[in-house]
Amino acid sequence: xxxxxxxxxxxxxxxxxxxxxxxxxxxxxxxxxxxxxxxxxxxxxxxxxxxxxxxxxxxxxxxxxxxxxxxxxxxxxxxxxxxxxxxxxxxxxxxxxxxxxxxxxxxxxxxxxxxxxxxxxxxxxxxxxxxxxxxxxxxxxxxxxxxxxxxxxxxxxxxxxxxxxxxxxxxxxxxxxxxxxxxxxxxxxxxxxxxxxxxxxxxxxxxxxxxxxxxxxxxxxxxxxxxxxxx
Length: 231
Hints:
Shape: globular
Largest sheet: 8 strands, mixed
Number of helices: 6
CATH superfamily: Alpha/Beta hydrolase fold, catalytic domain
Distance between the termini: 24 Å
Number of domains: 1
Strand content: 15-25%
Low-confidence stretches: none
CATH class: Alpha Beta
CATH topology: Rossmann fold
């Protein structure tokens, strides 16, 4: 977290609806500093420990601002995930607000998220601006939901096929929703071969049984990816 804690505010995502956004800035924030927008997973919200860990680590160690936000269903504490158009609209509204009100005009913008949020980010960058998607210089996915538990023969590859920017996929070696050996060849065939980082012993949230709550290795990999992408 930045020295004074995150900035917290609401962003309108529809008529009468708004979601909470948290922005953690480096202690000495520059207008051209990179910025990462992270969306949460299906069964959690913007305060998930993995996202909070990145929001603490990246501003201090990579001079990168981190934006977290709730989807509308998480904002109203509902258990049922919003339909895809509502999720996409919320991501787009937060993106536009950050681009217009927070990020400097030359700031490199990265998109990403955990599980559901990461898949949505991949879909949006795959479409590009002309296809109603979002522009970014890089994609960060934390725990990609490649397949259902026990259904490795039915992977969900469609969101990945047209990623045209550098990408980093952090997955756990014991994730029941993503076999790294199935994901690796898919990423290798992308226009910019995707980078795969496997957290040994990590689950779908990249958490290890021998070090619960320690996400430092994944955070450093994200920091490294951001530094190398903009260098």
